[in-house]
């Protein structure tokens, strides 16, 4: 009976996966835009404030096309409507040898200034070989097909990035801005991809099982991970946010690196200006209420684990006053006003002991509503060079750098998000130069989306933080992935009254042949393996970011190319949802 139930479960999972991913290229990758939701569609939006719908008022090719237009809530505002969206899809090509690929995009549009499909040709090792551009005919407002032929030698993946942009002016603010998408056709040597069998995903495997090293939460076995000893900068990239168990592992590794590998800078995937407060807390400066900042960080981190890590770092610094650890954030606030609000509060805290009129003026300027605020504040700093002496070199450079990065990111949230990884890299390099000189090391804790080495991403059409860091530091930068096989993760959102609302989710079981499926076969519940022993291929790996998806929890990529090693934890517990009583 139990065996029958197991077979039934496996059949249901297999049926579910095949239903999601489809039987032909058109079905699997939704190339005809016949449906649009995260359970069945491979097309994903990156940076989007648009309305997306299957337009039931239009019929073309015996079906309703996909329509992208400005959201109604923006259209109701007084300023002219605008449309700016990026829609993307990663396609794994057939196993058969192919000389040329032809891509055809059928669409129609109204009043757009840009509608173009960028096509990244990507190798098996996830290197971008070339990027081609296919532009829609904006002069033709009827249905039209644009096409391009490109070489396909050594191409394993196609990354399609459809960018659309349009904006009305004050003279005609209510014009309709829209694009309708009928289909993207892909031909390989003149044949439709639907004529080819879908490629069989090579199962993940490890060449030498004895190289799978046992780890433990009860004793320090992290000396088994060579990168922790040999690399200046180690990024821990979790494949899923919201795992208390992953949080625990990352915190233990950070402590290990501090004690054994001269780690003197710890960077978290949190805003730079937010973590300036928490860093003051671990430096022992009581005027800064780091615990109040800590209470607001539970959206991504386990509160009790982070609370313990902060207390541990504070105690370490108390015992090593001449060799302290710095805890900072490499991220930026999504909204620029949050950035300046926290900077103003930070300067105010600094001024509680300094009692200086210029610092009072600086805080007031940061609090003002100014369109060109970064430029205004930077000009103020230049006009008053004595502020550097008042603040001290380190504080001055932190504030100046933060303003420069916010200026580079602009005040537009979508652009800030687009530049996010490149700015995280600039923040990390700046902080490394400031706090981790030669002989000292850095540990970074972030999502694998950011930490990984690849120039491409299955979830965003931008370069990863890790690819920038690898380019800058070469072999001194290392990415270690952390993934989980089964269990619970916790997501959080803010309610209308500003309180955190936590939800526990049971993650999907590993896809057959995935990285997690392989490690699930081993009895070790907590292990590490170097990527030298991975097989070299495109495989599934767990990949859950924000927001949480109930259906789409795995992505195709080459694990060997993206990381230097992986930590696998069999069972995940959710986040603890409150701080310890010490910081309540």
Summarize the structure.
The protein is of the alpha+beta class and about 575 residues long.
Describe what this molecule looks like in 3D.
The chain has 584 residues and is of the alpha+beta class. Strands 12, 13, 14, 15, 16, 17, 18, 19 and 22 form a 9-stranded mixed sheet that branches. Strand 6 (114-122) and strand 7 form a beta hairpin. Helix 5 runs parallel beside helix 8 and helix 15 (420-435) packs across helix 17. The radius of gyration is 25 Å and the shape is globular.
Spans of 5+ residues with little confidence (pLDDT < 50)?
1-21, 74-78, 579-584
Globular, elongated, flat, extended or rod-shaped: what is the shape? globular
Distance between the termini: 51 Å
DSSP summary: helix tally: 19
Radius of gyration: 25 Å
State the secondary-structure class.
alpha+beta
Strand content: 25-35%
The biggest sheet amounts to: 9 strands, mixed
Average pLDDT value? Answer: 87
The helicity comes to: 25-40%
**Would you report the number of β strands?**
22
List the helices and strands and how they pair.
Blueprint: H1 2-21, H2 25-28, E1 44-48, E2 50-54, E3 66-70, H3 72-75, E4 82-92, E5 100-110, E6 114-122, E7 128-135, E8 144-151, E9 157-167, E10 178-188, E11 191-192, E12 213-214, H4 226-230, E13 233-238, H5 244-260, E14 263-271, H6 272-282, H7 290-294, H8 303-319, E15 326-331, H9 336-354, H10 357-367, H11 373-383, H12 386-391, H13 393-409, H14 413-418, H15 420-435, E16 441-447, H16 448-451, H17 465-473, E17 477-494, E18 500-506, H18 515-520, E19 526-530, E20 539-542, E21 554-557, H19 559-562, E22 565-572
Parallel strand pairs: 13-16, 13-17, 14-15, 14-16, 17-22
Antiparallel strand pairs: 1-4, 2-3, 3-10, 4-9, 5-8, 5-10, 6-7, 6-9, 10-11, 12-19, 17-18, 19-22, 20-21
Helix pairs in contact: 5-8, 6-9, 9-10, 11-13, 13-15, 15-17
């Amino acid at each position: 009976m139990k065996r029958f139930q197991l077979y039934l479960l496996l059949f249901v999972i297999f049926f579910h996966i095949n239903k999601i991913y489809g039987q032909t290229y058109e079905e699997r990758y939704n190339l005809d835009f016949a449906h649009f939701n995260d359970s069945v569609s491979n097309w994903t939006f990156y940076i989007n404030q648009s309305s997306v719908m299957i337009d039931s008022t239009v019929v073309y090719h015996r079906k309703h096309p996909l329509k992208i237009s400005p959201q109604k809530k923006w259209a109701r505002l007084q300023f002219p409507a605008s449309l700016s969206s990026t829609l993307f899809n990663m396609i794994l090509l057939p196993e058969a040898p192919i000389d040329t690929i032809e891509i055809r995009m059928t669409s129609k549009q109204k009043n757009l200034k840009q509608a173009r499909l960028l096509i990244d040709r990507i190798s098996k090792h996830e290197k971008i070989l070339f990027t081609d551009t296919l532009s829609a005919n904006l002069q033709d407002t009827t249905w039209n097909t644009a096409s391009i032929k490109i070489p396909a030698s050594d191409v394993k993946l196609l990354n399609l990035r459809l960018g659309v942009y349009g904006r009305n002016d004050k003279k005609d603010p209510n014009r309709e801005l829209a694009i309708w998408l009928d289909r993207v056709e892909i031909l390989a040597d003149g044949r439709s991809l639907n004529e080819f069998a879908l490629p069989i995903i090579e199962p993940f495997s490890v060449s030498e099982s004895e190289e799978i090293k046992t780890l433990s939460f009860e004793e320090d076995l992290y000396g088994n991970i060579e990168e922790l000893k040999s690399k200046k900068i180690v990024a821990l990239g979790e494949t899923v946010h919201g795992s208390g168990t992953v949080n625990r592992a990352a915190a233990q590794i950070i402590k290990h690196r501090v004690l054994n590998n001269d780690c003197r800078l710890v960077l978290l995937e949190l805003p730079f200006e937010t973590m300036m407060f928490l860093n003051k807390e671990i430096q022992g400066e009581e005027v800064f209420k780091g615990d109040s900042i800590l209470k607001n960080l539970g959206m991504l981190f386990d509160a009790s684990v982070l609370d313990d890590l902060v207390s541990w770092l504070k105690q370490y610094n108390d015992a090593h006053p001449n060799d302290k650890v710095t805890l900072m954030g490499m991220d930026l606030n999504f909204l620029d006003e949050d950035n300046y609000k926290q900077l103003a509060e930070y300067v105010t805290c600094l001024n509680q002991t300094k009692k200086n009129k210029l610092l009072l003026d600086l805080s007031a300027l940061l609090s003002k509503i100014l369109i060109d605020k970064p430029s205004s504040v930077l000009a103020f700093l230049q006009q008053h060079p004595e502020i550097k002496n008042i603040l001290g070199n380190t504080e001055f450079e932190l504030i100046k750098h933060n303003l420069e990065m916010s200026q580079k990111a602009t005040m537009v949230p979508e652009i800030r998000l687009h530049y996010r990884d490149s700015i995280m890299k600039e923040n990390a390099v700046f902080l490394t130069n400031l706090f981790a000189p030669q002989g000292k090391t850095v540990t970074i804790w972030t999502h694998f989306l950011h930490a990984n080495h690849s120039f491409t991403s299955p979830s965003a059409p931008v370069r990863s933080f890790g690819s920038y860091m690898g380019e800058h530091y070469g072999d001194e930068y290392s990415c270690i992935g952390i993934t989980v096989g089964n269990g619970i993760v916790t997501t959080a959102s803010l309610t209308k009254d500003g309180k955190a609302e936590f939800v526990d989710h049971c993650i999907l079981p590993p896809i057959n042949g995935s990285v997690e499926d392989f490690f699930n076969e081993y009895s070790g519940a907590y292990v590490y393996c170097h990527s030298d022993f991975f097989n070299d291929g495109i495989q599934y790996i767990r990949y859950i970011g924000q927001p949480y998806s109930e259906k789409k929890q795995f992505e195709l990529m080459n694990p060997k190319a993206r990381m230097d090693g992986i930590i696998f934890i069999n069972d995940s517990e959710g986040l603890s949802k409150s701080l310890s009583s010490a910081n309540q």
